[in-house]
Specification:
Number of strands: 3
Oligomer: single chain
Protein name: HD/PDEase domain-containing protein
Domain HD/PDEase: 52-207
Helix content: 55-70%
Shape: globular
Structural class: mainly alpha
Radius of gyration: 19 Å
Order of helices and strands: HHHHEEHHHHHHHE
Strand content: under 5%
Organism: Planktothrix rubescens CCAP 1459/22
CATH class: Mainly Alpha
CATH topology: Catalytic domain of cyclic nucleotide phosphodiesterase 4b2b
Length: 296
């Protein structure tokens, strides 16, 4: 996808974020709407510079707009979504993968290939050939560090709340009480992260990009994937046995809007498509050499 197309996508996303907030709340707390526009403009243009093959600006836009559709469905069905709830959720969605971007944390030194892990001042040094996908193991904590640094002087934002929201996008999901919720705002953000990418009409054809990220971090071996087709073959069971349990409340809220129902339709079409994909038609893929990172 060319740079101009991605720039137009960013502009459209920002317009849709502001318009939806205004349609729901009118003139109420317009400083929240303006802050959303500021954050969206900054984060999306930062992510646009990322060279991660899969977790790119299109991914963040899909997830953010899915989360907005979930919020709107919750508002229409329950009328209990405050402007602040809306603001915090949208900020977390926009920033949930900002940790992939090299240079986004204050301790990052791009010229030395040294990057913060987001925890306890620890840093890592990456090899020259690595993409931003090499920050996958650290991107959630890096995102939380970015929230701390970006909003430290902003009185409209509760930093701890948004950091908690981003924490719930950690995947695989840790088996503990903190990560168990599926119906609160953090749980709905996780649902948006999953639905947003899995309902993408081009999801199956993006599997080579996802595999490239797995291969770069070595996690493909952990999952038993040696080719993008292995992701596709495993996807129906992965959706049923892993994903489904985290997205039910999000799917419920999506049923209240036309846009949300379209997302649900695309989601299940992708499952069926993966299930019935011809075995003699492998997904196009150009392998890369495996890269490593070292703790500094």
């Amino acid at each position: 996808m060319c740079h101009r197309t991605q720039t137009l996508m960013i502009q459209d996303c920002i317009h849709r974020l502001y318009l939806c907030y205004y349609q729901v709340y009118g003139q109420q707390q317009l400083d929240y709407a303006n802050l959303m526009v500021e954050v969206a403009n900054f984060t999306l243009h930062q992510i646009l510079q990322s060279n991660a093959p899969y977790h790119n600006v299109e991914h963040t836009i899909l997830v953010t707009l899915t989360g907005q559709a979930i919020l709107r469905g919750k508002y229409l069905s329950e009328k209990n979504v405050s402007p602040q709830d809306w603001l915090y959720t949208i900020i977390a969605l926009l920033c949930h993968d900002i940790g992939y971007v090299k240079g986004i944390c204050s301790e990052d030194r791009i010229e030395d290939r040294i990057y913060s892990t987001g925890k306890n001042g620890e840093i890592i040094q990456l090899l020259p050939e690595t993409t931003d996908a090499s920050l996958t193991p650290y991107h959630v904590d890096r995102g939380k560090q970015f929230i701390q640094e970006y909003f430290k002087h902003n009185p409209l934002v509760n930093i701890n709340t948004i950091q908690h929201y981003i924490e719930l996008t950690r995947f695989p999901v840790p088996n503990d009480e903190e990560h168990r919720g599926t119906s609160d705002y953090p749980g709905l953000i996780r649902a948006a992260d999953l639905i947003g990418q899995l309902a993408d009409p081009r999801y199956i054809h993006k599997m080579p990009d996802l595999f490239q990220e797995f291969e770069e971090t070595g996690s493909n071996r952990q999952f038993g994937y040696h080719h993008p087709d292995h992701i596709r073959q495993a996807y129906p069971n992965f959706f049923k046995n892993v994903v489904a349990q985290y997205i039910q409340t999000g799917l419920h809220y999506l049923t209240f809007t036309v846009e949300g129902n379209q997302m649900i339709s695309h989601l299940y079409q992708n499952v069926e498509f993966a299930l019935n994909y011809p075995e003699d038609k492998p997904i196009n893929y150009c392998p890369i050499s495996h890269q490593n990172s070292s703790i500094a």
